[in-house]
Design brief:
This protein has 497 residues and is of the alpha+beta class. The chain has helices spanning 2-59, 66-80, 114-122, 163-213, 228-283, 290-322, 334-351, 371-387, 436-441, 448-458, 485-496; strands spanning 83-88, 93-96, 124-130, 137-145, 154-161, 330-332, 355-359, 367-369, 394-402, 407-413, 462-467, 473-480. The strands form 3 sheets. It has a 5-stranded antiparallel β-sheet with strand order 2-1-5-4-3, sandwiched between helices. A 5-stranded mixed β-sheet has the order 7-9-10-12-11. A hairpin with a 4-residue loop joins strand 1 and strand 2 (93-96). The protein is rod-shaped and about 170 Å long. The protein binds adenosine-5'-diphosphate (ADP) and magnesium ion (MG).
């Protein structure tokens, strides 16, 4: 393909140059001829004028002395290096330097010769033709002579052969031809190189484009000019970059997906293996010992609950991730969310003798979002706080507006085991647990914080974890407050109602 475009450009340029040269050459050839002829005519006219002047005295008497005219014509012919003819006004040839005296009367009447006719009419005439008399191609120039005192006018005509003039013109045209030939040869070279310069980046582009189409995104086109080809190259490079990023992202997603499948299988296998083991033990005879059988069945029940929990969390996570669940965007009062959540966490917290405290300013503006989802977020956080804090701990929930970024901040802090700084960013990953055994013992699935992160980000918010002072963890959530002022009015109507 690159080959053909190069030849197309080369041949196209050559054709254009050739056409230009042919037209210019044709015009130049013609004008050289015309110029030379005009110059020849001027020279011949000057000589004819002089000859006429010299012949004038002999033309005054009537009739003119023909023998003296003939001698004078021959003399002038030699001097002027031309054929000299004298013709009377009726076309009768009186003298001719190219003829002998006795050949003169045999000459045809010259009145109708073009140069003579126009000289009679206008004073001067020219013509180029083959001479009847001498057989040469001649340039004729005739002039009217009116000698003072003569009663009739005469014509003096000079003729010179065109051979020298024509060979001069041929020489000039030959030189011109050579110049045009050289110009053409140069233009062949130039168009070849121009075509190469123009098509080389194009063939590089073609190579890279072919590789892109084939799925390899490493190669880039070297930065060239700023013209359209350069723009094309840059655009293609950008496209390759973009594809490369997209593909890299896709591959990463693919790895994440594979890891996820492996994790899920592993998580499901643990309770299933346990269930299978106890069922086998029951069949092997434990069923005959009522106490043992009850204990085993309780373990089986616990493991089944755990399976159920994992599946529920997975289902929720996949629903949120797939974007099938649309978060509502309503003004939500956080006080309400906290109250709803505390109700469900209280029993476990009381069992562990934790103190639960809440600090929310009464004039806290609402956040924009989905109340049920926000309840779920807080439930997961409080559930963790209760689980990962040893008995008799303190759990504290706060909310406050953050003016700088127009969000509402919600924090959940505890006095528990805390999370090592290195693990903090990772606890939001699916199945990531700081202490697997403890999490499992607490009935965790490792999906709670992943769900939290998804919901918060789905609300256009952020979530992160810090260390609590002096011990424990603090989870911080920031969710945008609605910009629409009507959104802020609604909950205050709630409180007044
Ligand atoms: N309040 C907390 N205190 C200490 N560790 C926590 C706390 N919340 C979460 N974690 C750590 O983060 C991990 C992930 O939490 P989560 O996603 O809710 O899963 P899990 O089902 O294990 O609770 C937990 O296993 C635990 O190691
Ligand atoms: Mg949890």
């Amino acid at each position: 393909m690159s080959f053909s475009i190069r030849w197309k450009v080369t041949l196209g340029t050559l054709l254009a140059v050739m056409l230009g040269l042919v037209v210019a050459g044709g015009l130049a050839f013609r004008s050289i001829e015309q110029l030379e002829l005009a110059r020849a005519e001027e020279a011949l006219a000057a000589r004819t004028g002089l000859a006429a002047l010299a012949l004038q005295p002999l033309l005054a008497p009537s009739p003119p002395p023909s023998d003296r005219l003939q001698i004078q014509a021959r003399e002038l012919g030699i001097q002027a290096n031309a054929r000299v003819t004298v013709i009377d006004r009726d076309g009768l040839v009186l003298a001719d330097s190219a003829l002998s005296d006795d050949a003169l009367p045999t000459l045809a009447n010259h009145r109708m010769r073009p140069e003579v006719a126009s000289a009679l009419a206008t004073g001067r005439g020219t013509d180029i033709r083959q001479s009847d008399t001498t057989g040469q191609r001649l340039f004729y120039l005739a002039m009217r002579v009116a000698p003072p005192g003569a009663h009739a006018i005469s014509i003096v005509r000079l003729a010179m052969p065109l051979t020298t003039l024509e060979s001069r013109i041929r020489d000039l045209q030959q030189a011109l031809g050579i110049a045009f030939g050289v110009a053409f040869a140069v233009s062949i070279l130039l168009s070849f190189f121009i075509a190469r310069g123009l098509t080389k980046p194009l063939s590089e582009i073609a190579v890279v484009a072919r590789q892109l189409a084939g799925g390899s995104f490493e190669r880039r086109i070297p930065a060239a000019s700023n013209d359209e080809v350069g723009v094309l190259a840059t655009t293609l490079n950008q496209m390759a970059d973009q594809l490369d990023h997209d593909i890299t992202a896709l591959r990463r997603l693919e790895t994440v997906r594979k890891d996820f499948v492996a994790n899920v299988s592993h998580e499901l296998r643990t309770p299933l293996t346990s269930i299978k083991g106890y069922v086998e033990a029951l069949l092997d005879g434990a069923k005959d010992h009522p106490e043992e059988a009850t204990r085993f069945l309780q373990i089986i029940l616990k493991q089944s609950d755990r399976l159920n929990l994992i599946l529920e969390d997975l289902l929720q996570l996949s629903q949120i991730e797939s974007g099938r669940v649309q978060f509502r965007q309503e003004p939500v009062g956080l006080r309400n969310v906290v109250e709803r959540t505390l109700a469900s966490v209280k029993p476990l917290a009381e069992k562990k003798r934790h103190t639960l405290s809440v600090a929310i300013p009464p004039d806290l503006p609402p956040v924009s979002g989905d109340e049920d989802r926000l309840v779920q977020v807080l439930t997961n956080l409080l559930d963790n706080a209760v689980k990962y804090t040893p008995e008799g701990g303190a759990i504290h929930v706060t909310a406050r507006p953050v003016r700088e970024d127009e969000t509402i901040e919600l924090t959940v802090s505890d006095t528990g085991f805390g999370i090592p700084a290195a693990d903090r960013p990772r606890v939001f990953e699916r199945f990531y647990r700081v202490d697997k055994a403890r999490s499992r013992e607490m009935g965790g699935t490792g999906l709670g914080l992943a769900i939290v992160k998804h919901i918060v980000e789905g609300h256009g918010g952020q979530v992160w974890v810090e260390g609590n002072d002096p011990i424990g963890s603090r989870f911080i959530i920031r969710v945008p407050a609605p910009k629409d002022p009507r959104g802020a009015v609604q909950p205050s109507r709630d409180t007044t109602a």
